Structure formats: C-alpha cells, structure tokens
Amino acid sequence: MSETTVPETDEEEKVADKISEEEKDTRPEKEYVELTVEYTVLPDGEAEVTGYSGKGNRATIDSKYEGNRVIRIAESAFEDCSTLEAVLFWADIEEIGDSAFKNCTALEEVDIPGETNYIGAHAFENCAALTHLIIWGNSDIGDYAFASCHNIEEISISGKTKSVGAHAFENCTGATSLIIWGAESIGDYAFAGCIGIQEVDFPHNVISVGAHAFDGCTGLTSVMVWDDDTEFGKNAFLDS
User: Which domain range does residue 145 map to?
Assistant: First the structure.
C-alpha cells in the first residue's frame, strides 16, 4: 500500500497551498477556434443558420446576416458536429430546429436566449458532455430534446413554458436538481431514468403529467403536488 505524506507543520501546509495555487494559475485557459457558421435569408427577410464548415470548437451565432435579423437555427444545422464544445448566441433566436445539435458529443455549455420560444425535437439529444445548460426564456421543449444528456446537473423549467415533450430529458442520469416553475403538460417518459433527481414539486399550473414521466427515477424521495386537479398518466412514477 502506498503512503500519503501529510505536512507536519503550519508552514509546510502554507507552502503546499501556495504550490497548489501556482499550479492552478499556470493551467492554460481554454482556447476556442471558431467554426464558420452558414446562413440563409428567408423569404420574409429574416435569416436562419443552416450549417457550418471547418473544424473549430465554438459556433458564434451573429445577430444579423447581410443586414437581416437571424431568428432561427434550422433542422440538423450542427448535427453530428463532433468538435463543437460551445455555442455563443448574439442573435435573438426564436426557434431551434429539430436535431439542430443532435449528437454534438463534445458540446459542454449552452445558454439558450430568452427570445427562444421553441426547442425542437431531438435538438440536443445525445449531447453527452453537456453540463452547463441555461434556458433563459419560456421555451416549449420538443420530444427527446435533451434525451441522454447524461452530464446535465440542473434542469429548470420556466413558469411560462406550456409543454415539455415526450422523453424530453429521458436518461439525464447526472441531473440532481429539477425545478418546475410551470408547464401545462409534461409528456410521456419526460424525465424517465433520471436517477439523480431526489425531489419534484408540481405547481398549480401543471395540468397533466404523462405516462411513465418519472419511470425509473430511483433517487426520488419527495413529490409535492399543489393542485388536486393535476392528472397523472399510467405508471408516472413506476420504479421510482
């Protein structure tokens, strides 16, 4: 068995702490290389992101393209982009299309703008490295939108979100915090397999919770329902 050396004096402890801090200071900051983001002007004079080129690790979404306001990320625009680690939004994106970032397995952080009102089906599915997720607005969330994002730690659903799609956060096994400020409907299997969630409160404006919505949430110890009229689907808490 190997032995661990422990500083024997306060002075040795101070030296050890100083060395530790110096090591932190010498670690290089993360460097980003920009992807070339591709845009298309829509018939109504707005613009959307349609794809990318290059081997960078960050995508910066500009607010305008050729003088036209960028409002949408098209379906599958960044799908399977294995180098993408971060997305920087300067645009007031209103919609993120289906599968827009699906299988971006290196993607670590996303702040979804407050103007976004819909996150498409499968939009971030299998983004397994995603740890930092903030949804600033009141987005409706499509089916499988964040399914199998195993490293998301916190999930927060806005008070003005109307729907969370089926399987939307299924198998987000790293999530330990779930806050539902509001959502009229929560789809089938929406949080199934989220084994780290320990408690969930359903506010008054939650009308329906789908079948198997929390199936397999084995860490769940507390459920609070604020409205007796909230309807729960079959086996909503099976094996929880």
Answer: 53-232
